[in-house]
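ok so heres the complex, two chains, lmk if somethin looks off
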Amino acid sequence: MIEVNDVRKHFELRDKKTRKKKRIDAVRGVSFRVSPGEIYGLLGPNGAGKSTTMRMMAGLMRPDSGSISICGISVTDHPEQARKKIGYLSTDLNVYGRFTPREYLSLFGEFQGLDHRVAEKRAFHLLERLQLSDFADVRMQGFSTGQKQKVGIVRALLHDPEVVIFDEPTTGLDVLTAKTVLDLLHVMKAEGRTVIISSHVMPMVEEVCDRVGIIFDGCLHGDASPRHVLDQWNVRTLDEVFFSLAATEEVA
Amino acid sequence: MRGALLIFKKELMEFSKDRRTMFFTLLMPLILYTVLFSIMAKLNRRNDEELKKHPSRIALVDPDGLIAPLLKTPGSKFEIVAPPQGDVSKAILAQKLELQVVVEPNAAVKRSRQEPVTLTVTRDQSEGASVLAYDRLEEVLKASDTRIVAERLASLHAPAALVVPTHLVPVDAGDQGRAVTKALGAFLPYLVMMMMLQGAIQHGIYTTTGEKERGTLLSLLSTALPRRQIIWGKLLYTFTMGVVSALINILSVAMSYALLAQPAAKSGNTSALSDPLVLLLAFVLMVPLGLLFSNLILLVGVWSKNSAEAGSGLAPLTFTVLILGVFMMSPGVDKMSLLPYLPVVNVSLAIRKLFSQQANTFEYLLAMTMTFGIAACLTWMSTRLLNREEALFRA
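and the predicted structre for the whole thing:
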């Protein structure tokens, strides 16, 4: 279970010309709730505030105000406890190229509090599931983006997290690997995990998400099933929702 | 602490998988110093032997022929050459000859009157061959003077002791070996500081800014490990690599030194260098210094966006340590009363005094406490910095 209540976050960037600080409100009062066995899609164009929201949920950033709780644990007050419940994946995250998947995953299993042998066993099982077990003892420096992403997914799921936060999980992946990831999302849903993904690939979102939240300019616009959102905006695809939002912004 | 040890293990695993870095960190210093010192020693020895093989070329201006017979004896180590045309100094600097000896006019008359005869010698003190020629000349003249004085005393029926009113007998409390130890005591802290810093910088940047650049830091931060333990693990690794680098370099210098075996060091009083207590106390003092450096490196490493920025951020530190190290090698610097209160410098001073067998307990403890204190403050700052988003997500 994830509960996000009125979360706000701003950044200050320095203007190179004027040397003055510029305030950017990345997330402006976002609230939503995701239950176990549900896949929630956080949608929005680049710079809308998706990644910042997800980083706050994963305990990597602190919100300026508002609260986030994961399985009843406050992420801001007890980030380490909360992170034990979370499996976080982002396209920003890379793997240690000098390690083999087996070494890398065993080590990360230990970081998450697992015994070395248990971690190694679980890692191999998950690698098999993602058809990567043949590469378990190959150094990752020569891996493709898809292979690295698969290892990243295994790392995120290694400690059997109740909550899975995947930021842009299919970015840069070929169709086959993307399909494997989508299948895995369905499996996680069936296992009763709470899943949040962010994406701007609308067909994928429409296929896997039970509910979606459209985030635009730091604000959440609508929080319903993909079908309901389309009806609400009177459009045929979720892409068109963005266009409508962008048009509204321009008029304002 | 388990988390810190796991991070330490991860860093060591990464290090062990990079053969090139392993070679440059662990093996290269051992090979480099030994080979370099061996070549230098061989060249020196060969140069000395070459010099001793050849006779010294001397231009002699001796109108009365007073000195010439001394230099022309069978088996003489001198070759008399014609005085050069033009500037004598230039000819000596151009190594056309080693010395010019000019005996003053009327030397024979003066000698017969038992007055001192003046010889003007032009030489090049920067050139080994010229110095050797001068020493050879001095030796020949000393033997001749001794003979002349003995003859004069005999003609006066005076005892030989007449011209030796005082007989000096030196008893060495500290011999040449101690001088070597003192010189090493001034040089070793500099070597330790520089090697520790260089070793730690390379690995410290790799493990902090490097992780940011490679996009692996966030995956580490997304685990359940507390951030302070991540910093402690990285600190432990950076510190270990700094100490290992310093120890390997010192070991290499010691090996080279033993191989070359300066006679003074072999025969003399070098007890401070081989005293386990002195070595232990010096090593114990290296611990807080290593922690201090490692903390500074981590602080800059966590803050920097990329390795280039971290490198330029740490350049002032390297420069400061270099200057301080050179300053601490200056003679008489250990007498300055302010130095025991200056961080880093006081560690160098304490190690220097340990090797000079002039250790001061108060100064030693002060250096240790002060360095540990600063290191602890910096650890606290690094941990705080790793929690700051502006450091982690600097664009």
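quick notes: Chain B touches chain A through 24 residues (CB under 8 Å). thats all i got rn
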